Structures are given as structure tokens and as C-alpha cells.
């Protein structure tokens, strides 16, 4: 189902960047460009295979760019595109909500 046919904006959002790992990957990339290994060590429980798949999907969907440097040893960095960066407000709102929720539950 294409997101154009979905009436609920939350469903459309989750179709684009939902899942267990994509929001977390995007959150870390919002802090600045990262190498594969930097992302890998920051996210517990995420296999390298799944990380590779998720990064490819995020790149395909226009949220992340992959830049390969011609160096020895080879170096690759991932960075948010303008579309990916536009999610920063969403992450800021989520963080603020979680902090408020934690305070209420303490």
C-alpha cells in the first residue's frame, strides 16, 4: 500500500520511518555523520546485517546519504539528508514527551 492512499498521518509516518531500528538510527545520525561502526556500537541488539539493510532502505527512501571515501582502509560515512534532518523536530518532541512522562511516573 502506498502512503498516498493512507488517510492516517501516523500510519504514513510509520510506513516511512517506522520499525524497531530506523527511528533509532535516524536519531543517532541527527547528532552528525557517523561511520558504520559508530552506529553499530551505539545501538545494542542490532545485528550488522540488519543495520546494513536498514541503512540501505533509509538511503533508498531519501533520508540518509552514504559517502564512500577513497582511502586505505576504505571509509564510509552516513549522514541525514534534508528530509532526514527535518525529523529533528519529531525527535525533540518525542524526547520532551518521554522526559515529562518520566517525571510524572517518578
Summarize the structure.
This protein is an alpha+beta fold and 106 residues long. It is built from 6 helices and 3 strands; from the N terminus they run ααβααββαα.
The CATH topology is given as Arc Repressor Mutant, subunit A
The SSE order reads HHEHHEEHH
**Structural class by sheet pairing and helices:** alpha+beta
Total count of domains: 1
Helical content (DSSP H or I, runs of 4+): 55-70%
Q: Characterize the largest beta sheet: strand count, sense, and whether it forms a barrel.
A: 3 strands, antiparallel
Tell me about this structure.
The model has no long low-confidence stretch (mean pLDDT 92). Strands 1-3-2 form a three-stranded antiparallel beta sheet. It has one domain (8-105): Winged helix-like DNA-binding domain superfamily/Winged helix DNA-binding domain (Arc Repressor Mutant, subunit A). It is α+β, with helices and mostly antiparallel strands. The chain has helices at 9-17, 22-29, 36-42, 48-60, 82-85, 88-105, and strands spanning 34-35, 64-69, 75-80. Helix content is 56%, strand content 13%. The N and C termini lie far apart (41 Å). Strand 2 and strand 3 (75-80) form a beta hairpin.
List the helices and strands and how they pair.
Blueprint: H1 9-17, H2 22-29, E1 34-35, H3 36-42, H4 48-60, E2 64-69, E3 75-80, H5 82-85, H6 88-105
GO molecular function: DNA binding
Protein name: HTH hxlR-type domain-containing protein
Keywords: DNA-binding, Transcription, Transcription regulation
Protein traits:
6 helices; Arc Repressor Mutant, subunit A; three-stranded antiparallel beta sheet; 106 residues; alpha+beta
Amino acid at each position: 500500500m502506498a502512503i498516498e492512499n493512507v488517510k492516517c498521518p501516523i500510519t504514513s509516518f510509520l510506513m516511512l520511518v517506522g520499525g524497531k531500528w530506523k527511528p533509532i538510527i535516524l536519531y543517532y545520525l541527527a547528532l552528525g555523520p557517523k561511520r558504520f561502526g559508530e552506529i553499530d556500537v551505539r545501538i545494542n541488539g542490532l545485528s550488522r546485517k540488519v543495520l546494513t539493510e536498514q541503512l540501505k532502505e533509509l538511503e533508498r527512501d531519501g533520508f540518509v546519504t552514504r559517502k564512500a571515501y577513497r582511502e586505505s582502509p576504505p571509509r564510509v560515512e552516513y549522514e541525514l539528508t534534508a528530509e532526514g534532518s527535518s525529523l529533528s523536530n519529531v525527535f525533540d518532541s518525542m524526547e520532551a514527551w518521554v522526559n515529562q512522562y518520566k517525571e510524572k511516573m517518578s
